[in-house]
Design goal:
about 0% strand; mainly alpha; globular; about 350 residues; 15 helices
């Protein structure tokens, strides 16, 4: 029996959901958050300290919109602001990115479930499992050995590579109409590999899973952006939950990061779903040009403030080259798959015609 079928949809996975209130999971999530937030803010008298971190609320209005409407996590905005403007340690910026994405992108995922937005569920499941492995590898084996300037440059170079690809292939990507990967074991394994790479990157800079998921779906599987972007947002939220749990367990989330999270949380829990809703209505070409522009801007900004020595310049060149080559390989792989599928489709059609005649 053939175990392949078209990409999963949210409606296939939640058939037992109460039809009278499909948004109940999201509503329970929001109510639970504000109940806990109110206890912490007012019951434990942290309100004044939370209010003192109001700047992160403003930052995450933009960050949450980007997280919901593009294949870039909210940490893409939060990380450079915290590091380059607020002069915080990259490790703290990474932790904030992970815990704020765990809140906001998970909120968006639950909203997608309620609204039956199509998702590549098998690929998503594989990527979330792989991200857990990547977080363990990166957190304990790689991140402790990287100096802060290289972490900043890694963040900038990763997104610059992604921005250039988006810029040069924008029209082509926006014209994709493929339904995405088939629901089989191969899809789960490829998602697992994407998750391991993305989780390792996110363990260092706070973002990466969503980019890897999106890149594979779009470049290899030629997936429609109406499926690829929501799946990337969902992967960001679910994998960030894993990372947040890990960092809570190892107790390296400091008080300032926690207060930033409490200050931005009430904004993010609503704004990321709003961004997801808008992404399905805004012109996709303009959204991706915005993504490319944001990537290029943060790269130039980071380079200007960080690359002061020979080591940094060599690292930036190597990271940019590696990222660009890997994305190009994914793109060429997708083009080959597209041609192979087209040949098979023509052959199948011809055989059917012969049989009928």
């Amino acid at each position: 029996m053939n175990d392949t079928k078209p990409v999963d949809s949210a409606s296939d996975s939640i058939q037992r959901t109460d039809r009278r209130n499909p948004m109940r999971y999201w509503q329970v999530y929001v109510i639970a958050f504000f109940a806990i937030w109110s206890v912490v803010a007012f019951g434990f008298h942290f309100w004044r300290e939370i209010a003192a971190h109001w700047r992160m609320s403003l930052v995450m209005i933009a960050g949450a919109f980007v997280a919901g409407s593009t294949p870039m996590g909210g940490g893409t905005v939060a990380f450079p602001i915290l590091v380059l403007v607020f002069k915080q340690n990259p490790a703290n910026a990474r932790n904030f990115a992970l815990i704020i994405q765990a809140l906001g992108s998970t909120s968006s995922f639950l909203m997608m479930i309620g609204r039956r937005i199509p998702l590549a569920f098998r690929f998503l499941a594989g990527s979330v499992g792989g991200a857990a492995i990547g977080f363990l590898l990166g957190t304990f084996l790689i991140a402790p050995h990287l100096q802060s300037s290289l972490v900043k440059l890694l963040f900038a170079c990763l997104w610059m590579s992604f921005g250039l690809l988006t810029l040069f292939r924008n029209i082509e990507i926006c014209g994709l109409h493929g339904r995405g990967p088939l629901s089989n074991v191969s899809t789960v394994l490829i998602g697992l590999a994407a998750g391991i790479v993305g989780g390792t990157l996110a363990s260092i800079i706070g973002v990466g899973v969503e980019m890897c998921v999106y890149a594979v779906l779009v470049l290899v599987y030629r997936t429609d952006l109406r499926i690829a972007i929501p799946t990337a947002v969902a992967a960001c939220g679910l994998s960030s939950l894993e990372a947040a749990a890990l960092h809570v367990w190892i107790r390296d989330i400091d008080r300032q990061t926690a207060m930033n999270w409490l200050a931005a949380g009430p904004v993010v829990i609503f704004m990321v779903p709003v961004g997801t809703w808008l992404a399905r209505r805004l012109p996709r070409v303009r959204v991706l040009y915005f993504v490319a522009g944001l990537c290029i801007f943060q790269f130039l900004w980071t380079l200007q403030q960080t690359a002061g020595g020979r080591t940094e310049w060599i690292f930036a060149a190597a990271a940019m080259s590696t990222g660009s080559v890997l994305l190009y390989i994914l793109y060429k792989t997708g083009k080959r798959r597209e041609k192979t599928d087209a040949v098979r489709s023509v052959g199948s059609h011809a055989a059917q015609v012969i049989i009928e005649t």
